[in-house]
Structure formats: C-alpha cells, structure tokens
C-alpha cells in the first residue's frame, strides 16, 4: 500500500525554522554589518515560538551565535531551542535549498530536491549538499531525507494544506531548471512526490530585481485554504502595473476545489527602493513567514509599512504580527521568507 502524502500549509504546527547564516564568503561580504542584525532579529523572533536550526560555514561565528542565542532563549525561559550545525554554504537562501517536508502515513518525510541557484545563475554546490549535512548531524532525528532528482525551490510553491498547489509558470517551466520536462511531466511529478491533487499556475506577475524567475512567495500567498493575499500595484505609470494587473485577473478566475472563488486581499505596494547603482530592489510584503502563533512580516522603512502591518493583523487575527526591517536583505534580491524554511511539527525534537 502506497503511503499517502500531504504538503502542509505554512500555518500548520511547526517544530523549527531553519536559517543558513551569512558569512564573508557569500555575496553578503561587504554588507555583513547590515545584514547580520536582520538575521538576529529573525532568530530571536522565531525562538519565542519554536526551535531554531542555524547552520554556518564559519565555525567560530557559529559558536558565538549559539552562545548568544541560547542565552537569549534561556533568559526568556525557553532553554534548549537553539540547534547549531557547522556546514558549508554558498549563500543564505534557506527557503530554496532547505528541505520540503511532507506528511505521510508513516510520519514526516523531508524531500531533498536539487538546487541549482535558480537556473545556474550563481554557485550552488555547497547549498545543494546542505540538507545532507543537517541530516547527518541528526537534526531531523529518524525522519528520512529523501533525494528527489528534480530542481525545485521552496519559494516557488505555495500549499493550502488540502491538496492545492499555487505556483508560477515563469519559474517552474524555465528550461534552466528541468529542461527535459514539460508542464504535464512536472505536474505529474509534483502530484506524486508532494501529494497534491491540483496545481494553479500563474502566468503573469514579476518584481524588478528578482533573481528567482517570479517565485510565488514574492507575489501571492495562501493565508487560509479559501483566501489568497497578493501583490498589487496601483500606479499605472509603474513598470509593474500591467503584469500585476494581469496576475490579479488570473487570481480572480481561479476556483477552489469545490468550484467557489477565492477570497482575495491585495497587499500594499511599497515605494520604490533602489541600490547604489540605481537598480530597483524587490521589496514585497508577500514575503512573510507564518510560524507558531505569529507572522514575521518584512518591512522596509517606507510609509506603506504601517498599512501592511494592519492588513496582516486582519488576515491573521489569532497570530502576533512581528515586523522586521528587511531593507538590508533586498540588496541581495530576497526578503524574510526567502531566508527561512519552516520544519513541520514532529521533526525537530531536540
């Protein structure tokens, strides 16, 4: 008898959140002083609600982090929540190189998809091996780490926990990821390994400065099985207006498994943020992380932050909203959800 699989929604109970800590050997080298405080803020927010798994290539820095964060957790009456693992890494985007966990009738299984840095855009070999380092260190206990010979990043898929997957065609159908597979073959594979019944494909929507080929977690997110929040651009003069308006129309046409339309909530559009060279950076409020009892919401020190906090409180009335200034993260073209990966309940039990 085949074990039935389910890909949990992000709001399902969690045991831990995974962070791959930046180090001077990454593209963060000249921004370490700016970006480490963001990671520290995320780490401390997570520790209030669940375990934290940190890996870092620099062992001395990892030891410091372990001491600092364990002291923080113990000071808040939460001892034993920090798990540190020395492991090489090319970069810090745990959402995309971390394991994707499915529930099965035999218990949780962690899927180790291939990672090739969003279609071979950057070095990736260390990141692709990181999950095996964590498994060998015992982070996942006795739960299996199953290799899957398919390139897939966690930021490219969004689950409602009830068999529906939301994704983008621009990402999953990019030839630099799985060139031998067409849409039908990809659907069949994802249905088998993730246990999903149907896939909703968005064909429009993008953010300038995004390296991921339109990951769904920058554009549209499930906030309940019948409710999707999404990025909306109200400025007709903005370069994003047409693509995001077309994406909104697609979302309006989507139907739930029972045939009813989804509830839809647009998210604020932050003022443009540019780097030193004038390149627009991908600031998005859709890149939030749902954890036990809270929402970690990226904010960017722009006027729209307050509205984003208010909307998120309306969307998740039973969770604490924890804003974290992620402006430093977007200088490397990602945000809060991109640097985290949740690990469902029952996996990390240290």
Number of domains: 1
The CATH class, by name, is Alpha Beta
Topology pattern, helix = H, strand = E:
EEHEHEHEEHHEEEHHEEEHEEEHEE
Question: What is the 3D shape?
Answer: globular
Number of strands: 17
Low-pLDDT sequence parts = none
Integer-rounded radius of gyration = 19 Å
How many strands, what sense, and barrel or not for the largest sheet?
4 strands, mixed
Secondary structure: helix percent: 25-40%
Strand content: 25-35%
Class by alpha and beta content: alpha/beta
- Name the average pLDDT: 96
CATH architecture: 5-stranded Propeller
Instruction: Compute the separation of the termini in Å.
Output: 32 Å
- Counting DSSP H or I runs of 4 or more residues, the number of helices is 9
GO biological process, one term: putrescine biosynthetic process
GO molecular function: agmatine deiminase activity; protein-arginine deiminase activity
Keywords: Hydrolase
Protein name: Agmatine deiminase
